[in-house]
């Protein structure tokens, strides 16, 4: 890896293309270096993972809405169109709308992969737009599964490299501002576009995907699932414009009125962005990790610790035995999903699901009492209103611990941690103290996810909505991804079983 020094430049400095971050990102995208076998395997795992959580969410309101929007649009004339999760594979739509619908389905339950560093991210959000474009142009350009894998590896590499260096949330900018450029670059790799075209697409994608973090603050709305899908849709459109010769604001990051100067750390800011050398394998996907539980990633380890405590200390299942529970954790966990956010909604039984999956006091309470976590039942209104849960929930708070903050931001993967230490004060004066660094499913956790676990996650989450034959068909296609021919890429989707969506109301809009 090399570090690209990034800072703002006055207009009269005339920063050359070669010195601009967007140009360097485009260079990564155009590098023809071969992929390592473990990277290829992990790409397949994440394609399965995305489909699993999409199947679980296929009847939820935001997903139904996005799917109905996508299917209201015909296939564009430049290709064969792309598939939409939940619809018959023969019913295609234009790629940007397929990216939109599938992006919402993947993101709705907050249940797919993550990478956390200076910023946080869900790099699996790169997959829907890249696959949509691949399906659309497979026949025209002879695209194969290997091309798809290469495009996805680029998307992961660039988003994760940006996340390692540039904090967005510190300035209340939503994390999808790193996704627009990475998805555009991944599409560029998929299509074998030249560096200038990818450079322009990256700039346009960044310019159109910066927004505030209010989508993840206070009363969290359904837009939380739409935000990354919108970034993916914008990336597809940015690539289309760039391929037609249209240009972007330059320099997009470094300009005196650009992203760094006015949205991030200001005119005097500088960053060191790690990027692969030319000819160096793209391996960033291996630094990311998926979720065993449907909740914000910083909650994953806490759920596992709560399940452990549930089994070891039956007395704490009675809320009257507990005086207080304090979670000593990182700055980010405390201020984003903890009591440090100062969001009363995080303690409100009537809060939206989107809010509760960003409330570690709620999540820890339910996991502690139940000894388990379910993507649907754990968020149900009945579960949130249970009197003993509400009683205990109010006793759970978070505090920042400098050591856990340091480990959260460590660039040493072996040291990086997303958990903390819990102190449970009992009514009789006693204490229970325990800690956890990473989730059980983390690569360094007690039960790391491998292909077997990804496949089982898909089977478990899809069994209510897909026929057994469709489950096995999809798993066969997905696991053969690196060898798929152009005529097989359309199989990277699933159709729901007859009757699975009976009673689901299709909303009406403009289209």
Automatic annotation (TrEMBL):
<dbReference type="GO" id="GO:0047547">
    <property type="term" value="F:2-methylcitrate dehydratase activity"/>
</dbReference>
<keyword id="KW-0456">Lyase</keyword>
<dbReference type="Pfam" id="PF03972">
    <property type="entry name" value="MmgE_PrpD_N"/>
</dbReference>
<dbReference type="Pfam" id="PF19305">
    <property type="entry name" value="MmgE_PrpD_C"/>
</dbReference>
<protein>
    <recommendedName>
        <fullName>2-methylcitrate dehydratase</fullName>
        <ecNumber>4.2.1.79</ecNumber>
    </recommendedName>
</protein>
<comment type="subunit">
    <text>Monomer.</text>
</comment>
<feature type="domain" description="MmgE/PrpD N-terminal">
    <location>
        <begin position="20"/>
        <end position="271"/>
    </location>
</feature>
<dbReference type="InterPro" id="IPR042188">
    <property type="entry name" value="MmgE/PrpD_sf_2"/>
</dbReference>
<comment type="similarity">
    <text>Belongs to the PrpD family.</text>
</comment>
<feature type="domain" description="MmgE/PrpD C-terminal">
    <location>
        <begin position="293"/>
        <end position="481"/>
    </location>
</feature>
<dbReference type="InterPro" id="IPR036148">
    <property type="entry name" value="MmgE/PrpD_sf"/>
</dbReference>
<dbReference type="InterPro" id="IPR005656">
    <property type="entry name" value="MmgE_PrpD"/>
</dbReference>
<dbReference type="InterPro" id="IPR045337">
    <property type="entry name" value="MmgE_PrpD_C"/>
</dbReference>
<dbReference type="InterPro" id="IPR045336">
    <property type="entry name" value="MmgE_PrpD_N"/>
</dbReference>
<dbReference type="InterPro" id="IPR042183">
    <property type="entry name" value="MmgE/PrpD_sf_1"/>
</dbReference>
């Amino acid at each position: 890896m090399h570090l690209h020094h990034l800072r703002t430049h006055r207009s009269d400095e005339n920063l050359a293309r070669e010195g601009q971050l967007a140009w360097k990102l485009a260079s990564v995208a155009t590098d023809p270096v071969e992929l390592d076998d473990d990277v290829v395997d992990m790409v397949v795992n994440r394609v399965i993972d995305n489909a699993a959580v999409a199947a679980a969410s296929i009847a939820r309101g935001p997903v139904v809405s996005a799917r109905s929007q996508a299917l209201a649009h015909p296939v564009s004339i430049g290709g064969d169109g792309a598939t939409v999760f939940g619809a018959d594979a023969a019913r295609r739509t234009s790629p940007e709308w397929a990216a939109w619908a599938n992006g919402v389905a993947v993101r709705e339950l907050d249940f797919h992969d993550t990478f956390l560093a200076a910023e946080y991210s869900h790099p699996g959000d790169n997959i829907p737009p890249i696959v949509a474009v691949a399906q659309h142009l497979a026949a025209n350009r002879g695209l194969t599964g290997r091309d798809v894998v290469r495009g996805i590896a680029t998307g992961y590499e660039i988003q994760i490299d940006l996340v390692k260096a540039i904090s967005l949330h510190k300035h209340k900018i939503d994390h999808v501002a790193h996704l627009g450029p990475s998805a555009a670059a991944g599409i560029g790799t998929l299509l074998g576009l030249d560096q200038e075209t990818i450079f322009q697409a990256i700039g346009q994608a960044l310019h159109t995907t910066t927004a505030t973090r209010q989508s993840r603050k206070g009363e969290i709305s359904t837009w939380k699932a739409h935000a990354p899908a919108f970034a993916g849709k914008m990336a597809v459109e940015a690539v289309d414009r760039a391929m037609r010769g249209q240009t972007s604001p330059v320099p997009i990051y470094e300009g005196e009125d650009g992203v760094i100067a006015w949205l991030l750390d200001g005119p005097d800011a500088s960053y060191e962005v790690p990027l692969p050398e030319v000819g160096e394998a793209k391996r960033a996907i291996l630094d990311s990790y998926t979720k065993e539980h449907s909740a914000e990633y910083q909650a994953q380890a806490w759920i596992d610790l709560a399940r452990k405590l549930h089994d070891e200390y039956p007395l704490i299942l009675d809320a009257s035995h507990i005086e207080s529970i304090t979670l000593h954790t990182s700055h980010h966990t405390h201020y984003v999903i903890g009591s440090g956010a100062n969001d009363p909604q995080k303690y409100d039984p009537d809060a939206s699901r989107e809010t509760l999956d960003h409330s570690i006091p709620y999540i820890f309470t339910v996991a502690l009492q139940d000894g388990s976590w379910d993507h649907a039942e754990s968020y149900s209104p009945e579960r949130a209103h249970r009197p003993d849960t509400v009683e205990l929930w109010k006793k759970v708070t978070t505090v920042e611990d400098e050591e856990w903050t340091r480990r959260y931001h460590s660039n040493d993967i072996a040291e990086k941690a997303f958990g903390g230490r819990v102190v449970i004060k009992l009514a009789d004066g006693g204490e229970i103290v325990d800690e956890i660094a990473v989730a059980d499913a983390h690569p360094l956790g007690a039960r790391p996810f491998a292909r077997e676990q990804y496949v089982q996650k898909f089977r478990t989450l899809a069994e209510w909505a897909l026929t057994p034959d469709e489950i096995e068909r999809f798993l066969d296609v997905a696991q053969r991804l690196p060898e798929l021919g152009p005529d097989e890429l359309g199989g990277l989707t699933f159709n729901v079983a007859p009757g699975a969506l009976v009673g689901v109301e299709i909303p009406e809009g403009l289209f």
